[in-house]
Specification:
Layout (H helix, E strand, L loop, with lengths): L17 E7 L7 H12 L3 E7 L5 H11 L3 E4 L4 H7 L2 E2 L1 H6 L4 E5 L2 E5 L2 H13 L7 E5 L3 H12 L4 E5 L3 H8 L6 E3 L5 H7 L2 E4 L25 E4 L8 H8 L3 E3 L2 H16 L5 H14 L4
Length: 295
Amino acid sequence: MASSTPVDRRPPASGSTRLAAVVGSPVRHSLSPTLLNAAFAATGLDWTFTALEVAEGDLDRALDGMRALGLAGLSVTMPHKAAAAESADELTDAAARLGAVNCLVPDGSRLVGHNTDGGGFLDGLAHDAGITVEGRSVLIVGAGGAARAVVEACGTGGAADVAVVNRTPGRAQSASELAGGVGRVVEPDAVEQALARADLVVNATPVGMSVGPAGDMPVDADVLRVGQVAVDLVYHPLETPWLAALRRRGIEAHGGLSMLLFQAARAFSLWTGDEAPVAAMEAAARAVLSARPAD
């Protein structure tokens, strides 16, 4: 009987093995090593990926180390995304607009800062739902880093309307501006109306991530209807209470794993020039998350 264990096609580690890493604090629960090592194993590239704990305020020293050690690529997670945008030698348009970098690509001695989060969201939406945001009305709940990346991506991706809901009006306004002329803020008393008219509803808050009251929902699931698409950017648990409630009502609803997966796939391609083996990466991530206890 054939083994179901994925085959690692990489050659044995040697002095020629290229090293990439993710930096953050805390970083021990990062799925990046799982995703990227699965990609390198499936393609047979002589690369390996690790996680490096870097305390807040120490990113510049870490980047000096990256240059000195010749790291082939660096993923950046909290709390360093804004600092990485300040320290990169060059920024892509998305990274500059967001003021946040999650992927650094060496170009000689220079480091180019990318933000693959928004593009990862759009790729994940196409993968899961088979749609784009072009011409659609999008409602985004939240105004943190993930929400801002989604707002920016929807704006540049041709959405007709990008509405932002957040309990802090100033943060909602700042996020909505990333969508350009199609961005707007939804006032608290207009949330149900905005939910009802949206083609796509995105939860970009952490509600549902941790074990809590069974009724914890970012927005009322009962307001949505069949024909709309919902995405919850929480990826652990794989099914949040909000997703479960929506699916019981027959509403198309997808989790946040695909955004995480495809932002990593974009980083893989930026570093290697190769197409990412998305299926292998997804299988590895699902296996790890299925075995991980709820927070």
